[in-house]
UniProtKB/TrEMBL annotation:
<dbReference type="GO" id="GO:0009089">
    <property type="term" value="P:lysine biosynthetic process via diaminopimelate"/>
</dbReference>
<keyword id="KW-0808">Transferase</keyword>
<dbReference type="InterPro" id="IPR019878">
    <property type="entry name" value="DapC_beta/gammaproteobac"/>
</dbReference>
<protein>
    <submittedName>
        <fullName>Succinyldiaminopimelate transaminase</fullName>
        <ecNumber>2.6.1.17</ecNumber>
    </submittedName>
</protein>
<keyword id="KW-0032">Aminotransferase</keyword>
<dbReference type="InterPro" id="IPR015421">
    <property type="entry name" value="PyrdxlP-dep_Trfase_major"/>
</dbReference>
<dbReference type="GO" id="GO:0009016">
    <property type="term" value="F:succinyldiaminopimelate transaminase activity"/>
</dbReference>
<dbReference type="Pfam" id="PF00155">
    <property type="entry name" value="Aminotran_1_2"/>
</dbReference>
<dbReference type="GO" id="GO:0030170">
    <property type="term" value="F:pyridoxal phosphate binding"/>
</dbReference>
<dbReference type="InterPro" id="IPR015422">
    <property type="entry name" value="PyrdxlP-dep_Trfase_small"/>
</dbReference>
<dbReference type="InterPro" id="IPR050881">
    <property type="entry name" value="LL-DAP_aminotransferase"/>
</dbReference>
<dbReference type="InterPro" id="IPR004839">
    <property type="entry name" value="Aminotransferase_I/II_large"/>
</dbReference>
<dbReference type="InterPro" id="IPR015424">
    <property type="entry name" value="PyrdxlP-dep_Trfase"/>
</dbReference>
<feature type="domain" description="Aminotransferase class I/classII large">
    <location>
        <begin position="32"/>
        <end position="393"/>
    </location>
</feature>
Length: 403
């Protein structure tokens, strides 16, 4: 067996199941889960129809590089969304079966196994795929703590030069999971300067980019590179997905785009790995990337939901509207001294609401666990259900404070 598998930690939801194993939730309340970031808004009918109309494609093997029509649809979306110059669909865009598998696979492509001191840097808290990808590529993860004083953006300035010199890949997530933080153009300039100096690749996870609460949409990595005059997007690979944007997590459809030299090697890896997207999924995905009306309608639902739920929770928790994404990242000890783990367990037991302890999404690094005493709440259900959950959380938290 590969000994690197022993380095993998249980997934946050496995930890949550273990935490709840001996708990019988209060039967007076129906269960409501804010624990998993799985979109619950309905899949648009036109995407379902496009999938059904494309089933003849099941009789053919798909190309790993995807169809020309899908690559053109992805490139067109990138150009419209981020104001990019025309992309080469043959070299700068590649469909993937969901951003998750591509985020994992990129490390296997990029990390040099001959180098015994390789690091893969990632934010902390983080999406656990980054950590697993680092370990199974033969590297070690290096955690960069989020900084509440910077709206929870990772504190990249805290990383020593000798660490950057060992980094081969930097994962970043903007808008962030779980914090919702969005990197600024100045942040990108600093990261590009570091990449130029030390030669590492930036993997920009942008799967929450279309759920935002301000008039100006979140800045993307390729958009930042273009604004800063970085032609060809050197050492930058951006990831996106239809899962959150279009409410189709079951389709497993996304893309990578950016540096053509890296994508050429990544396509070679994927050809051997067997990661081609099914033809019917490709056809439906091309249709989805070409439509913005359903995205605007979806975003409007989130805006309304967060405007109603956030002020309610802010009465009892230290929480504010994020820049983007569909999570609230709340500090739980505003009214009562309680850990994130105890808060989640008691809330589930007494009010049948599931939230995810923040410490499960982070690692202790540089003397702290930046998720400690925080919880992540995924506001993915319809507004009425999220409001009911929020009202229960308010009642529970006030009861804690009274005792």
């Amino acid at each position: 067996m590969n000994p690197l598998l022993d380095k993998l930690q249980p997934y946050p939801f496995d930890k949550l199941r273990k935490l709840f194993a001996d708990v019988t939730p209060n039967p007076a309340y129906r269960p409501i889960s804010l624990g998993i970031g799985e979109p619950k808004h309905p899949t648009p009918a036109f995407i379902r129809q496009a999938l059904a109309d494309s089933l003849d494609g099941l009789a053919a093997y798909p190309a790993t590089a995807g169809s020309e029509a899908l690559r053109a649809a992805i490139a067109g979306w990138l150009e419209r969304r981020y104001g990019l110059p025309k992309l080469d669909i043959a070299t700068q865009v590649l469909p993937v079966t969901g951003s998750r598998e591509a985020l994992f696979a990129l490390a296997q492509t990029l990390v040099d196994p001959r180098r015994g001191d390789a690091l893969v840097a990632c934010p902390n808290p983080f999406y656990q795929i980054y950590e697993g990808a680092a370990y199974l590529s033969g590297a070690e993860p290096y955690y960069i703590n989020s900084n509440p004083a910077r709206n929870f953006a990772p504190d990249y300035q805290s990383v020593p030069a000798e660490v950057w010199a060992r980094v081969q890949l930097l994962y970043l997530c903007s808008p962030g999971n779980p914090t919702g933080a969005v990197l600024s153009l100045d942040d990108w300039q600093a990261l590009f300067d570091l990449s130029d100096r030390y030669g590492f690749v930036i993997a920009s996870d942008e799967c929450y980019s279309e759920i935002y609460f301000k008039d100006e949409p979140p800045l993307g990595g390729m958009e930042a590179a273009h604004k800063l005059g970085r032609a060809g997007y050197p050492r930058l690979i951006s990831f996106s997905s239809l899962s959150k944007r279009s409410n189709v997590p079951g389709m497993r459809s996304g893309f990578v785009a950016g540096d053509a030299d890296i994508l050429k090697k990544f396509l070679l890896y994927r050809t051997y790995h067997g990661s081609a997207m099914g033809p019917a999924i490709q056809s439906a995905s091309a249709v989805a990337w070409g439509d913005e009306t359903h995205v605007q309608e979806n975003r409007a639902k989130y805006i309304q939901k967060f405007r109603e739920v956030t002020p309610l929770l802010a009465e009892v928790l230290d929480v504010a509207l994020p820049d983007a994404g569909f999570y609230l990242w709340a500090k739980v000890d505003k009214l009562a001294a309680i850990s994130d783990v105890d808060f989640a367990k008691r809330l589930y037991a007494e009010y049948n609401v599931t939230v995810l302890p923040g410490s499960y999404l982070a690692r202790e690094a540089h003397g702290i666990n930046p998720g400690q005493n925080r919880i992540r709440m995924a506001l993915v259900a319809e507004t009425a259900e999220c409001l009911e959950a929020a009202q229960r959380i308010v009642e529970f938290t006030r009861k804690l404070a009274a005792h």
